[in-house]
Amino acid sequence: IFKLIPSKVGKPARYFSLDSINPPPTHYERGVRFTLHTPGTRFIGVGAPLYYKSIPIGKVEKVELAKRGEGVDLKIFVPEKYRYLIRRGDQFKYFHPVKVESHFLNFKVEVGTLPTILLGGVQLVGVNFSEPILSSGEFWLTGE
Q: How far apart are CA 13 and CA 6, in angstroms?
């Protein structure tokens, strides 16, 4: 996609600057896009997956500081195939790729894949099927 920006000096423009704007890879896919507001206490990167029952059902397209800096807004895309899972009232939490358990000198460590360690992730922990399916552009807070 190319965007022409005209001159702002008041005269008819003879020259235009040509800027390339790269949309996210999912830009032309059908699905639902929504904003998830988080306290921003964990690292989440662009491309981080959205999981439901350990299955990736979407991904983070953009991460930005909230308007007043009180948290982080995650722009999330979920393809049409899994749109029915995203409803008002759903609950989300950060996905933890490293899990450590200890039972008095007996340690158990579970580690996720390298991409999940590097990008982090978000987990859909509860789907409220009695609520309506979410529309694109909606916004809500996460539980953690």
A: 6
SS3 117: helix
27 neighbors 59 (Cβ within 8 angstroms): no
Instruction: Report the distance separating Cα 22 and Cα 37, nearest Å.
Output: 24
Q: Of how many residues is the chain composed? A: 144
Look up residue 93 and give its two tokens: 């939490």
> What's the whole-model pTM score?
0.69
Mention every residue, 6+ apart, whose C-beta is less than 8 A from residue 49: 56, 58, 59, 60, 95, 116, 119, 121, 122
Q: What is the pLDDT of residues 51-102, one digit of tens each?
A: 898 889 999 988 888 887 788 888 999 999 999 998 887 888 877 666 666 6
- Within 13 A of 84's CA, how many CA atoms are on the CB side? 2
